[in-house]
Model the fold of this input.
Amino acid sequence: MTTDGDRLAALRREFDESFARAAAAAAGDSERLVAVRLGGDRFALRVAEIASVHPITAITRLPGAPRGQLGIVNVRGQLAAVYDAATLLGYTSAGEPHRWCALCAEDRGMGLAIGAVEGYLRVERASLRAIAAEDETNRLLTHAFEHEGRVYRVLDVSAFRAAVAELVGARGPR
Amino acid sequence: MSDKDLQSYFRAEAREISDGLSRALLALARGEPSDGAVRELFRLAHTLKGAARIASRPMIGDLAETMEDVLAVHREAETELSAQEIDEFLRLVDVIDGELRALEPAKEHAKAATTGEALESVRIDLQELDRLTEAVFEARVQAASLRSSAGGIGALVDDAQRTIRDLAGDAERRSGAALRSVERARAAVDELRKALAVTESQLTARADALWRELERVRSQTDRLRMVPAESIFDALERAAHEAAHATGHAIALTTAGGRVRVDRHVLPTVRDALIHAVRNAVDHGIEPPDVRVAAGKPRNGRITIRVARTGNRVTFSCIDDGRGLDVDAVRRAAVDRGLVPDPDGFGVEDAARVVFAPGFTTAPQVTPLSGRGVGLDVVRAAAERFDGEARLSSEPGRGTEVSLLVPVTLASVPALTVRHAGPGLEHAHVLVPLDIVAGTVGVRHDAIVRSPNGDLVRYGDEMLTFVPLSRVLGAVPSPRAPEDRWSVVILRAHGQSVALGADGLGAILEVVVRALPAAAGRPPFVLGASLDIEGVPRLILDARAIVSAARSLVGATSGAAPAATRRAPILVVDDSLTTRMLEQSILGSAGYEVDLACSAEEALEKAAARRYGLFIVDVEMPGMNGFDFTATTRRDARLREVPVILVTSLASDAERRRGAQCGAAAYIVKGEFDQRVFLRRVEELLG
Done:
């Protein structure tokens, strides 16, 4: 049985190897992504947009939390506010456990909780297809791509940040 | 102070201000949010102007004043800088930087390295310090885990002991070769037990020693973040003397409380605010020497800088023995600016409030030092920045005291652990800063007095407003029997007291207050968080805010009429009587109103007759099943907004997916049923 620790170690190895390969690869032609599962569907996060991925051990809820906010977690001594990526995408969560937290590269004080991390992918940039922004939820999804016969949609972490800023900003000052 | 010292101080301050101007202007040039930017730039330009005039650097003073004049217009009109103005300002900052470089004495750095002072202290980058704190924290978590592992070996020792006892019993029933075999096994296990016991003992001792060492490292690391308040006294003294020199006033400045340690992040802002307060005191407070002598006062005006710590706050006071606040002048200026619609009855307290308004001044003309009335505006802004307070008290003819109260944000503060045992919260230990705690008392639930203004408890001779902790945390209150006891914490602030009702009290701990990340928003009544021994964040309550907001927190509070009962009722649909009763019991205990239906068809009838907030539905039922009930209600315009939780023994992924496809908001498997998770889902969905 694969434990969280094994999974994390494998992910870290893949990350490290990807950095080692970076010099050889034509960096401009490919995109590095982390494949995740949300609400049973496949998604991917751009490696460049996330600082790190951590297993979630304990979440402390905050009073008056807006929809999607799970609480705060401790990541190596620093606090981060964690949001349920699935809820922000409009999924009516079916009790999926929040096992992983992806910290945003631009703001390590914010993380997205995800149910399952599938692995690391490198895809040709040309294979990413833009998704038309039709509604509020789709603004969080910029592109889609196919990899080994599976379709993944790319989560726009910056758009998640903006959505969270709107959520917490809308509640006004203390 | 020698002129050499003065110039050295000026260069250091001016470099810092120039950096601040650059940063703020570049942020504006990048199009970043500009809230408060004009005010901040104005403050910096104003400070630089004053410092340059004192250090006899007229060119820098003039450049700063040019910026100040433009910014004053924008500040008044509440408008933003244009792109052209930003570019021009950046050019001016470049000129100022050039002037400052020209002032640098040659080989300053090489010389500094040879001094004893340079060898005894080093500058530490705050980010490096943060990384050190992070590493120390991680090491503590690992050490805690090591201690826990040692405990696991202790359990193995116990197992081995039990095995030895079992083998002893076995040996009594055996003889000959079988007995010898059991005896050998028993001896081997005993050897193993002894070896494990020794290992456990050594591991525990070493883990404890490691923990203690790491605690020392943590404590020292925390202290590195704190610097004594006296480190800003030189700058204040300099400002006071140069202001006295410029105005012709004679002053004597004394300081007290310099050993109080304050967070490095806080102190620079406090220093800037106090410099303005000191300049204001010299310029507007202290009378000319002849006037003082005529009034029977000492020739030299006295200014005292006093620092005092109370709990997690530090008060910086600037006290002068000057003429005091000119209430009439403040009233006239306030009326002119439209700050006071009715000047009748305008007293010293009103004046003390008005002088903190942005840009407020009573000075008839702008003076090189503080004539724009910027001083107290800066004090107020510093207080706001750290969620602190700015105060002023004054007595005509006797002097003025300006105080700035700021939190010691990263200092260790003593805090009382308070427990909330209600359902729906996993980590319901919160911390209350001890400086706000006036006492604790146990109170029976039936001793709480109901009144039209909310619940009250008696504390000594007082009847205090009672606020349950669950109300503060926005959590589900725990059910109460009349004889149940509340652990009541008496909070005292702003001259008012409030009784906070908790389910238990824990240890008093020294905790490090960490600010919540910006992405957490500003949750009500939360000051910050602290990490417990296992690294779990514990919330630190903003007890002052609780006292201030007590009136809005009272009402349906103490369990007799919990908040949740005001919500729409829940309909539980299940063909199993046991499940219905169990769910009703859990939900009822948590304060929800519950209706029951034993089939989907009956549930649809009930839903047609009454408005529900939530359906909790079994999947496998005779007749219509839970999936079909969910799909049916999703198609019904009147019911589709009512969320559905499916509670079922069906645990496969396919069934979970089907639940989601039908539109269920949550899917809970009976085999994995956890009351807390269940109640949290209910709470989330009822909103």
The longest helix of chain A spans residues 4-22. The interface with chain B takes residues 39-40, 57-66, 69, 72-74, 76-81, 83, 91-95, 107, 109-110, 161, 164-165, 167-169, 171-174 of chain A (CB under 8 Å). Chain A has a mean pLDDT of 80. The domain at 4-169 of chain A is CATH 2.40.50.180 (OB fold (Dihydrolipoamide Acetyltransferase, E2P)).
